[in-house]
Design a protein that fits this description.
Elements (H helix, E strand, L loop, with lengths): L1 E6 L2 E6 L5 E3 L2 H9 L5 H11 L8 H16 L9 H5 L2 H4 L5 E5 L1 E2 L4 E2 L14 E2 L2 H14 L5 E7 L7 H18 L2 E8 L6 H10 L2 E5 L4 H7 E3 L2 E2 L1 H14 L5 E7 L7 H9 L4 E6 L15 H20 L5 E2 L12 H6 L7 E4 L4 E3 L13 E2 L3 E2 L2 H8 L7 H4 L4 H4 L4 H8 L7 H25 L6
Parallel strand pairs: 4-8, 4-16, 8-9, 9-10, 10-13, 13-14, 14-15
Antiparallel strand pairs: 1-2, 2-3, 5-7, 6-11, 11-12, 16-17, 17-18, 18-19
Length: about 475
């Protein structure tokens, strides 16, 4: 299986199963499209016909190109067989340890964002704050459930976690005290809307928090349309705090996380706006599962969104050439290595290697499922008690979905988000069509950017 496309002057061929990426000339591109469908004589005839206006294209040059393509096929870099299915065969057996927890330390929020999938941070329930004892029990659960893993991740989430700041600090202190005793290393992440950031938050996070996620939707008018503080926009309140926070971190281990909706399908302007403010680590996600369809995106929006992603990729390359580049999360792609084949086949590990913890200590497959009664898996005191649900998530991957098995991007997306699938189709084995389309466009752009950088550096194809 291969995927071919043209973008920003590049002719790109992706070999799905090997992960090899080839940037080729027009002749080789056309021959690859014909390869395997006709004999050599017919390929030569059709290639010469398609390039009859090109004097350099002769029978000999076509045969030489065809020979080079055969060498790539023989080397397993083009039209390669599927080897990932072997890795996928033992997914359920390999997913035996919990490596990461998302602690919902606060089911309350000091903002009111109309597109919030969590219903204002309350997750379809009453407002609640996690007790420190519950947070400590979550740490204990993670240590005894990690299957021997040494590096363990905890994400402080909400709602707004800074509303329960003392518990955040208490959990970190408890986990740090357990590191030497149990030979563990904890990495913490904090996601915040920024309203309560102060010097104490900045100092503590710079010392203890591995990564911080700061919620900003871009331009003032875009951000303030949906992210309300006391009924008014929040941009002018949080922006100075974010700037101070990022400056204190010296630009490391953070990213700005925005959400775009049908009201700003020109979202690339919001990304560039954040870059112009001096933020260099950026993410912008399409809205999903918004209550009452607030700002929901539809299939009619796809052409405009594709144009935005393509423009953004070209603009990022231009800025890099000028020495003022920035990182966009979805265009961060390692074509020389990247995740192992097991991770590519299995996905994020929600419901098995990664769980979410409600303020009361209940366990869910991930933060998006919190508050869904059918998806409660147990609690931090008793552990995972819903074995059927755990096995369902353990077995979920690219080979459990027909659409994924036949998709050229499957080893990059790993089957996508189980929560998006569930909320779009009613099943974690379903496929969120809009999300798939956007992911593949982002991947095409990311690969094109990698090819352009490699060409500028004088490097060849990726394997």
């Amino acid at each position: 299986m291969i995927h071919t496309y043209k973008l920003n002057g590049c002719n790109i061929v992706i070999d799905t199963n090997s992960g090899a990426v080839h940037s080729v000339d027009d002749l080789a591109y056309d021959i690859i499209l014909l390869y395997g469908t006709d004999g050599d004589d017919e390929i030569v005839r059709r290639a010469l016909l398609g390039h009859k206006q090109s004097p350099d294209v002769t029978r000999q040059s076509v045969l030489e190109a065809l020979g080079e393509i055969r060498q790539l096929v023989g080397a397993g870099l083009l039209f390669s067989p599927d080897s990932a299915s072997k890795a996928a065969a033992g997914l359920a057996e390999r997913r035996q340890g919990v490596r990461a927890l998302c602690l919902h330390v606060s089911h309350a929020c000091n903002m009111s964002c109309d597109y919030c999938f969590a219903g204002g941070g309350r997750y379809r329930g009453a407002g609640a704050l996690m007790a420190l004892d519950t947070g400590k029990e979550a740490v204990d659960f993670l240590i005894r459930s990690c299957g021997g893993a040494r590096v363990l991740d905890i994400d402080f989430f909400g709602g707004e976690p800074l509303l329960n700041w003392d518990v955040v600090k208490g959990v970190v202190a408890y986990a740090r005290a357990a590191e030497d005793k149990h030979d563990k290393l904890f990495r913490f992440t904090l996601t915040t809307n920024g309203v309560l950031i102060d010097d104490d938050v900045i100092e503590f996070c710079n010392r203890e928090i591995y990564n911080v996620v700061l919620s900003l939707d871009g331009r003032r008018e875009v951000h303030d349309r949906r992210r309300k503080l006391g009924g008014a926009g929040s941009y002018d309140t949080i922006l100075p705090k974010f700037k101070k926070f990022v400056a204190a971190r010296e630009g490391r281990s953070y990213y700005m996380r925005g959400t775009y909706t049908s009201a700003n399908t020109d979202f690339a302007a919001d990304i560039v706006h954040m870059a112009d403010l001096g933020f260099t680590e950026l993410s912008m996600e399409p809205v999903v599962a918004a209550p009452d369809g607030a700002g929901a995106l539809g299939e009619d929006d796809i052409p405009a969104l594709f144009e935005q992603y393509e423009w953004l990729a070209e603009e990022m390359l231009r800025r890099e050439g000028e020495g003022r580049g920035f990182t966009f999360y979805h265009y961060t792609l390692d074509l020389t290595g990247g995740p192992c084949i097991y991770k590519r086949a299995s996905g994020c590990g929600s419901g098995s290697e990664y769980l979410a913890v409600s303020p009361e200590g209940d366990l869910y497959p991930c933060h998006r499922f919190v508050g869904e009664p059918a998806y409660m898996m147990g609690d931090v005191r008793s552990g995972v008690t819903n074995a059927r649900l755990r096995e369902e998530f353990r077995s979920c991957g690219i080979y459990s979905r027909r659409e994924c098995r036949e998709c050229w991007a499957r080893l990059y997306c790993s089957g996508g988000c189980a929560a998006n699938s569930y909320f779009a189709t009613g099943s974690i084995e379903g496929v969120y069509g809009l999300g798939c389309s956007l992911f593949k466009k982002r991947l095409e752009c990311a690969v094109m950017m990698a090819v352009r950088r490699a060409e500028a550096a004088g490097n060849g194809a990726f394997g």
